[in-house]
Fold each of these.
Amino acid sequence: MSTPHNEAALGEIAETVIMPGDPLRAKFIAENFLDDAKLVNSVRCAYAYTGKYKGKQLTVMASGMGMPSMGIYCYELYKIYGVQNIIRIGSCGGYLPELKLFDIVLSNRVYSESNFAYTLNNDDCHLVSSDENLNKIISSTAKKLNLPLYEGDTICTDCFDVYMTDKPKFMERIPKEIKPCAAEMEAFSLFYVAKLLGKKASCLMSVVDSEFIDKIATQKERETGLKNMIILALESSLFF
């Protein structure tokens, strides 16, 4: 059974999915880290590859940019394809001076002004958590790999925050109990859909820009330069 957005047959997608936003990053991971990788979806260039990492079957699939795109793909993966775990891996903007370029962030909770939950489920929800068990595994794996990992609250926006006309006003609207360390554009819909369907989700991000950093990661670096984050996600998935 396929969907309007995914041509994969049932059984061609693993129970655990590593989910970058960029389809070329999905291709890069499949070609460089998976054994016997097979392209199982190319509709709208949302490439999905299923193969094995150290003997475990995994799927890596692109989500596209933004909550609507992520919301469609993760809903179908959970609801139709029987996926149990999704780790989003992507880029983020760092919001703390101690975060350096390519530092890895693990989201514990994500806040969004979006009405995604209200539209999907008539739920006036703007704060949702990642799966605690997945996060514990990722945190433990990072320690074993000696990879520094920053854990904290993040925010999920409907637009690229760099393009906001008045970012300080946006920041003033964030509830005081939320202390965002980074911002991205997909995690809220992923976490919310996982919660709605009784599944598990987590989000790893690499810092690619920040008001505290002069350098901004290039397009090529964003596509292929996030290897530590990729390895952390893959190694963690062995324990799911």
Amino acid sequence: MIELSTPNGLSAQVPENESEDPSPHFTIKDLAGIQAYYEANGYVVVNGLLDPSTCDEMRALWNDEIKPSTHPIYRQETSRLELNRFNDRGWVMNPILNPQSVDPRQFPRFRKAAREQVLNSSGYASILQHIFGERPKVVQAMYFEGNSETWEHQDSYYLDSEHIGSLMGVWFALEDIGPKAGRFFVCPKSHLFNWPKRSLKNNVVDAHVPFIQSVVQTFLHSDSVIHSPALRKGDAVIWNACTIHGSLGTQDEARSRSSVTCHVIPASHRFLRLHHSVVDVPTEDMGNVLLHAPKDLAQARYRAIKWCETTFPRLFWALKKRLRRIEIRFEMLFG
């Protein structure tokens, strides 16, 4: 067991392998056990949700199509178009936002595999359908290679179902994740904490830092601990929108942590963005899941928006931030 710290200094005991892991590991055969543990603890670890060959193929396509690219791609940390940013080891450090939406003219095989082999994979879809009681709807996804380190947070602050706490996150390991590679961490039972309602004082546009500080303080005033599950290639962590989680800093720069994350809601639910805007998002029926593709660059209108953003970036983002602030304040005052 290795002792590390979260981005804001919370202590995390990190197991070097599954035998040291305080988090039980389930298999797809135990749907009842998975659901019971998830509902009690706000997360669950499931082994073998992706076939290792699928994981290898995704990483190979990443190396073939994404890493050599000179095209800007939407990124998870900023939601903006950026070129690849590499560290000294050659890992891409700015994760992709919504691999299901990348331009099929530039990244055809990567996009197809992300959509059909990961986001539509039957294993996790059957778990979510069992818990939801209906088909799952993917509303967002991300692809990581290098570890960008993620602060302690709840997904619900940024996105959720219209029925708060119904959204679930899934983190697929595309390779064995070493204990010092920047593991995913989670705070068991934190989905049961008494969280404050969203207001003008803690909205995502104006008060992001105070929100993160409140998450840390809530943890410190609880008797909770931090778990950082040992994951091998194909394993996954599933968690609740209200559960505190994040990723640890990298201690071993020689290790990547290739992974795909997605956020999923029940098919009949509408999508809640930034805790103020409820939308019925368009989806494509993939068979096992319904898939939403934000800013899908297969569509001409989103390619036009991309052109505006890359041609006039400062003006584009200044206007977008102003409009978002107005929208949030109007919704909270009159919605």
Amino acid sequence: MLALVTGANGMLGQDLCPILEDEGYDVIETDIDTLDITNKVSVNDYIMSLKPDIVFHCAGYTDVEKAEIENEKVRLVNSIGTQNIAEACSKINSTLVYISTDYVFDGEKTSPYTPNDKPNPINFYGLTKLMGENAVQKYCNKHYIVRTSWLYGIHGNNFVEKMISLNSDTPIKVVNDQIGCPTWTVDLVNGIIKILNEPFGIYHICGSGSTSWYEFAKEIGVNVLPCKSCDFKQIAKRPQYSVMDNNKICRNWKSALKDYMFLRTNFK
């Protein structure tokens, strides 16, 4: 089976591609240098020429803070770019797997969000990812929308690596009033592979259980002090509670983090 991956050089893509190959897929890796998803003609020609059986759309604009300033750029990538991919996939009857986010929710719930809960993003990044979801649903019948959260991995900048790099005798202030589900990229990939035998639709694939950024940092093993979100000058609003019900697709986040820390210590 031929699989095309956008954003293959990103943190998720670099774990996804080798695992897909281990699963028996022939993988075509693309990134901005080989496929500009914002160029409709290029996307259409590229996908029509290769005719992949499945497209894993991992490419995206992910800087939540800068998204509040670079509105047009983030919209072009996350919304228009995703629509271009969805339309092209539909023309060749290809399955599309779109990576979305917990930030499509406003954080007002007090119980885990389900795939059926109505999105209501409170920042521009979340809004454009929701636009991408809507484009996938509108233009491509054969799709999986995968919402994930608090992603970390060996191959990119993320919270875990940032905390480790900042760790010192002086405590780091970390917010304790935002609650979510840390997710290792490898667990996300394994979860995606699981749902490919399930009906098309929206899935939440994230670490089981929940925690605050502060407790997450403590589990990483760094020297931290709790603080509130209001203590930081940030442009973008963050949902205070973005815990998602993953239907037991992934293991507990603490177990995944333990394996990740062992891996980075012994093999990185």
